[in-house]
């Protein structure tokens, strides 16, 4: 009997050792939950990014882009669209957020109506604006003729009018979202600071300059950086309002990349056109991450 036990002990110990090497149930569940997300990340994020970088890695593509007047026009339009659109939108949003801080039921009702453009789906909204600005029978020219008795211009046949239409549609669509963000930021400012300023006899302008602006400056900068990054990749506004016309004169980098890749069947050149924005995009992202880290440390 003792021999059997002695001979059986190594077997029992071996089984126990083998069982101890198995991963814990918690680790197995963690792997089971994380594996699908990792697969989706690799398939739809990592692989497209790496494949795109590989497609746009040939220096000859960028020489071809620089030699194209259409690309240079798209670069200029991108700078105008992003620079003017983002700064004008953020400035108006910041000012309007102060207006919506006022009390009254009609202010709340007006805020709900004001948010509607942002809640509207982008494609039908921009396509409606495109047809609204039709030079022959668009609603805008019909209204000008009915009210003022003048014939409106053919809006989308001139480069600057078409680009102005793109900017107007972009600001109209995005303005409510950032206004609500700044409104939330203003609500976080303690009311005691404004009451102390009132006791000191400060006017509304001095309250705005010495209380609101310093406290909201970091939020304004972070939102501006984030909006700039998003706007650099904005395709819908240009594509569905002006269509890049007339004669591709209002194309931006996002739309010309799609045009090269699909319309002209040159994916490498399209990817190169989009990647040419990286020298501007990467510093903006680094600056945004640093500002967010600084804000989290201060909190």
Description:
Helix 3 (59-66) packs across helix 13, helix 5 packs across helix 8 (159-187) and helix 8 crosses helix 10 (204-232). The radius of gyration is 29 Å and the shape is globular. It has 2 domains: 24-55; 61-298, MetI-like (MetI-like fold), CATH 1.10.3720. The termini are far apart. It contains 14 helices and no strands. The longest helix has 31 residues, at 25-55. It is mostly helical and 299 residues long. Residues 1-8 have low confidence and may be disordered.
Domains (count)? 2
Distance between the termini: 71 Å
Query: Which topology of the largest domain does CATH recognise?
Result: MetI-like fold
CATH class of the largest domain: Mainly Alpha
Cα shape = globular
Percent of residues in β-strands:
under 5%
* Average pLDDT taken over every residue: 87
Number of strands: 0
CATH architecture of the largest domain: Orthogonal Bundle
Q: What count of helical segments does DSSP give?
A: 14
Q: What structural category do the secondary elements indicate? A: mainly alpha
Level of helix content? Answer: over 70%
- Unreliable stretches (pLDDT < 50, length at least 5) are 1-8
Largest sheet: none
Order of helices and strands: HHHHHHHHHHHHHH
Rg, alpha carbons: 29 Å
